[in-house]
Design a protein that fits this description.
- It is elongated and about 55 Å long.
- The chain has 230 residues and is α/β, with parallel strands linked by helices.
- β3 (34-38), α2 (41-47) and β4 form a beta-alpha-beta unit.
- It has 2 domains: 6-131, Thiamin pyrophosphokinase, catalytic domain (Rossmann fold, 3-Layer(aba) Sandwich); 133-223, Rossmann fold (3-Layer(aba) Sandwich).
- It is built from 6 helices and 16 strands.
- The protein starts with 5 loop residues before the first strand and ends in a 7-residue tail after the last helix.
- The chain has a 10-stranded mixed sheet with strand order 5-4-3-2-7-8-9-16-11-14, sandwiched between helices. Strands 10-15-12-13 form a 4-stranded antiparallel sheet.
């Protein structure tokens, strides 16, 4: 199947149909003002007075009234059932930054599917924004400036050798995997500077949502391209 790409010059907020809040959406839009929806996320966006510029999915989670409220040219139907709506949107949207809202919280199987997609597209600059946490994929290395004492978890979605400094519990040449050693519930040390290095893609970083602005500043330096800062 040929993949259709939708390029955006500006940062994109991608809204899904999972648990979220208008406050989280508004926070994401301050950093990523272009709104795109993954299927049923469009219904939630409309309920909060927002009209997505693009809706991607099989449209099985949109009712007739929601579809009628959206311009026909904003709808991109993808009928295949081999991937989730988040997967479809993530692989089709090309933007300097994607902030995913409505993909963390609620059903565990939905969350796991989103994390799976996040790990499988290491080239996508995406941060999932939940009620409590942020989650993003670091393919190789990163330097983060975060508030001391912030929780920082490393969760591998593949077998990865990890090195990390600046944490309360340092990580040195540690082999990690989904069915082996993981690095949850670590903390940022007193200096606030964390350096991460991995031998291959597959590592997800999880940290509190309160650190979103700091995470985006760090990712701007790492990714070094596009209008990540508002």
């Amino acid at each position: 199947m040929k993949t259709v790409n939708f390029p955006f010059r500006n940062n994109v907020t991608l809204i899904g149909g999972g648990e979220s809040s208008q406050q989280i959406l508004e926070q994401a839009l301050t950093h990523a003002p272009t709104l795109v929806a993954a299927d049923g996320g469009a219904k939630q966006a409309l309920a909060w007075g927002k009209v997505p510029q693009l809706v991607i999915g099989d449209m099985d989670s949109l009712d007739a009234s929601s579809i009628a409220a959206l311009p026909a040219e904003n709808l991109h139907r993808v009928s295949e059932q081999d991937s989730t709506d988040f997967d479809k949107a993530l692989r089709m949207v090309d933007a300097p930054l994607i902030l995913g809202v409505g993909f963390m919280g609620g059903r565990l199987d939905h969350q796991l599917a989103c994390l799976n997609a996040l790990a499988r597209y290491p080239g996508k600059r995406c941060v999932l924004v939940g009620e409590v946490d942020l989650c993003f994929h670091v393919p190789a290395e990163a330097s983060l400036d975060l508030p001391p004492g912030s929780r920082l978890s490393l969760f591998p979605m593949a077998e990865v050798v990890a090195n990390a400094t600046g944490l309360v519990h340092p990580v040195e040449a540690l082999k990690m995997s989904p069915s082996g050693r993981v690095g949850t519930s670590n903390e940022v040390g007193p200096c606030g500077q964390v350096s991460l290095e991995f031998d291959r893609p597959g590592m997800l970083v999880i940290t509190p949502r309160a650190g979103l602005a700091a995470v985006l500043r760090a990712l701007q330096t790492i990714w070094g391209k596009g209008p990540i800062s508002p």
